[in-house]
Each structure stands twice: as C-alpha cells, then as structure tokens.
Amino acid sequence: MAISEGRSGRGALLPLRMSQLAGSRGGSLAIFVGKRILWMVPIVFFVILITFVLMHLAPGSPWDRTGGRQLSQAVMNNLNIKYGLDKPETEQFKLYLWNVIHFDFGLSYQYEGKSVVTLIGGGWPYTATIGFLAFLLIVPVGISLGVVAALRQNTRVDYITMGFATFAASFPNFVIGALMVVVFSVVLYKATDGNFFLPSADFGLDSHLIMPVITLSLLPIAYTARLTRASTLDTIRQDFVRTAWAKGLPERLVVIRHILKNSLIPVVTTLGPTFAFLVTGSVIVETVFNIPGIGRAFVVAVSSRDYPMILGTTVLFSVIIAVANLVVDVAYVFIDPRVRLT
Questions:
Q1: Are 33 and 308 in contact (CB under 8 A)?
Q2: Is residue 181 within 8 Å of 200, Cβ to Cβ?
Q3: What angle is formed at CA 99 by the lines to CA 93 and CA 101, rounded to 5 degrees?
Q4: Which domains does the chain carry?
Q5: Is the pTM of this model over 0.85?
C-alpha cells in the first residue's frame, strides 16, 4: 500500500510541474517558440514543393542556349544524366528532400563544380551586412521621425518630416542609387580633384557601404515614419495618455512609458518582414553598386534555370522570413505585457 501510494505521488508531480511550467510566463513563451519552430518544417516543405513544381512547369530546360550557344541533344542528355534530370520528377523531388535533410542542396548548373551552399555562403555575407546595417538605420530614424511628427502635429516639424517621408517613398531604389553615384562619386570626384568621393562599386567594409545602405533604407524609413506617426497619434488620443498629461508627468516619461510603448506594436509587425527583405537582398541595389550578393545571384539563377540555386535560395528566404516573424511575435510580449502567446 505504501509503495503504490509513493508511486502515485511521484507520478502526480509530472502533470503538476508541466501545468506550472505552462502557466508561467517564461514557460508559455518557451512552449510557443517550440511550436513555431516545429511549424517551420511543413512551411519549408511546401515552399520547396511549390518552387519545384513551378520550375518544372516552365517551358524549356537549363541547357537551352548555355553560354550563348545551343547544345547538341547528345550533350544535353549527358547533362541530364549527370544531374539526375533524366529521372521522373517525383523521384527527383524525393531525392532532393533527402539531400536537404542532410544539408546538401546540390551542385549549381551555372557554376560547374560549385555547390549551392558554397555560392550562397559566398554571397549572403555581403547582402546580410548591408541589410543589417540598413535595418539598424531604419529602426531609430524611422521611429524617431514618426514620434516627433506626431508630437508636433500640424507644425513645421511635422510638415518637414512627412515631406521627407513622401519624397523618399516616391523615388525607386534604382533612381536614388543612380543619383547618389552621380553626386557622391562623379561630381564630388571632379569638384575635389579626387580627394573626396564615395566609391560606387567594389564592395568593401569601409566607405563603400554608405551609399548602398542609404539607398536600401530610404523607402523603409519613410514607411516606418508614416506608420509610427499614425500609430502615435492614435495612442495620444487615448484616455490613459490624457490622464498622464493631467497628472503633470514629465514629457519624456509620458512619451517613453505611455505613448511609445503602446504605439510600437503595429510598427514592430512591419519590421519583421522588412528585416527579412533587407537581409535577403535587393537585386536593384546590388546591381547598381556591383555587389556580389544573393539577391542578384537569385535573379541570374532564375534566368538561367539553375534549379539547385533557385531552390537553395528560396529555402534560405523562407527560413529567414519565418524566423523574423517568430521574433516579432515574441517581441510583442516584451512590448505589451497584456499580450498572451498561445
């Protein structure tokens, strides 16, 4: 009797501890993150499936006019056998999934002998560096401009800020990039006899970063500023903010503790996809400034029907977007304690 009671008591502790873990804030957050990570598996699977089907539905083959010349049928047959394209598409898909599980994304058709992992690993650091620096510029500048414009609504500060946002959002990236090259690379070079100018190509970890980062960040800054202004104006009209002003609290305290914290949720919602877009590359910016990133490499892979490169880059994009959205959802908890993750 004592033994059975002892076993029953120890067994009852497990569901009790699990319920306590799920009931705590940290435990529920950990469970939520674990579930979202598991959900990434079917998401990546369907991304691979859809991309694979669309690639094979497109007319033609990767060997059409390779290198500017038409290959003979015998050569194309040998290439199909070499890369496994002679097998049924269902078998190709199963084999690719098996290789992906082992982190093998295959060999590129365009760059003979080079793996997709090597090509992406060589280009993504350039893209990620520019995107990360652009994001670090977007968040403080965009949010600050929006908050200042809202606090000084219908004043000269508001008009100047929103005028800048409208101006930045009205010009495409390739126009801004081309103008910056003309002004800061060509005109400044001639005006200073080559003593002061910004390089327009040959990416490096120095002043070469300035123009690509600014070009990539102007549009998101404008969008973030306008969204922050709208959200802040809505928060300012809430009763709890009026009460804080009526208490005579300092402006800085009211703005940081009451206004900014409650107006950031819609802004944070957009920052996740924005970050994913930035670190996965902008083909326009990379083309204008001759940056060997994966954004331009992906477009080249699509035009040349480089199946492994297309699939590998698409998988990377989907994982980054899924992780960015997960970070945004987790950030809600720290911005607004009322948010509960389920």
A1: no
A2: yes
A3: 105
A4: 119-335 (1.10.3720.10)
A5: no
